[in-house]
Amino acid sequence: MQKRRNDIGWGIVLLWLTVMLHGCGTADSVPNAGKQEETPVVKPETRIVKTVHGDVEIPANPQRIVTQGYLAQFLAFGVKPVGAPYWEIESPHVKDLAAGIADIGQIDGGSVEKILALNPDLIVTVGGDEKLNEQYRKIAPTIVIPYGTYHEVHEEMKAFGQLLGKEQEADNRLAAFDEDVKQAKASIAGLVPAGTTFSIMGPFDKEFYIYGDGVNRGGQAIYQQLGLTPPESVRTDLIQKKVDAQSVSTEKIAAYAGDYIFLDISGGAEFDESSPVWASLDAVKNNRIFKLNPDRFWPYDPIAVQAQVKEVASMLQERLGEKKAQK
User: Fold this and answer.
1) What is the model's pLDDT at position 14?
2) Is residue 246 part of a domain?
3) Is the model's pTM score more than 0.85?
4) Which H or E run contains 266?
5) What range(s) does the Fe/B12 periplasmic-binding domain occupy (predicted)?
6) Beta strands in the chain (DSSP E)
7) What's the pLDDT tens digit per position in 135-184?
8) Domains in the chain: how many in total?
9) Residue 266: which domain range?
10) Any idea what the CATH number is for the domain that residue 51 is in?
11) Pick from 249, 245, 280, 258: which is nearest to 148 by CA?
């Protein structure tokens, strides 16, 4: 009886060893058997953007953007916001691209409810009113890019390329921009004698302004991109000091007047072009005034600047090309 119990015990042990050996053989015969499966890499749904108000966590791929002051910058990358102020939507440079974008009105308290109704996942604003910015932040992640942050197309396009994760597209679009500038400059080569100066000036509301090479009245296109020469007074008082606009008294207009003047009359200003001071300017006497269309020369986004470069070159071709042909 004892022998039979021992036989049964050994049988159980042998059976257990057989199962274990079989299991080990199976594991060795199947690649990666017994190993944990690799966890698939999940792309982050958000990312961090550095701003003047600190780091802001935004969606990695925002789908419902509301912007105040930067509509054209998004459209330049083929990104269509769901809301923007009416003056941006109606800009002649982007009007064809802005169909269907909701008007959120002025940058004031009335915009909050309109923005909320659009259910945005990102707000990008010039943000002059911090109390408003706080209300926007309660609706969606909000990036504040203050007015005048960018004074040059390349800088601005690269910044928005980083914001949107479209750095390569920014480089491609800047290459196209540079090619347009190159062609525009070639089209006026030889028309402008060396040393010829150009001013941008005009009345706005009840004051008279001189403009530099920044965000006002085509300054980027005229001075930065086409390389037209400003009067020394404009260079020292505005451009070198990074002043975009400066109001001057009537008596000082002549001190900033170039050989040619790009004239902007806007803001409901009444301007008497027969006034003694204005009529005494050499540019006026010699028909060297180019009148700017405010709708086309107020915007300062990359799309607008690219169009303004071409328009200014056309103005110079038409006026100076005729004079050259007459000689």
Assistant:
1) 41
2) yes
3) no
4) none
5) 64-320
6) 46-51, 54-59, 65-68, 83-84, 102-103, 122-125, 142-144, 198-204, 207-211, 245-248, 260-263, 289-291
7) 999 999 999 999 889 989 999 999 999 999 999 999 999 999 999 999 99
8) 2
9) 172-326
10) 3.40.50.1980
11) 245
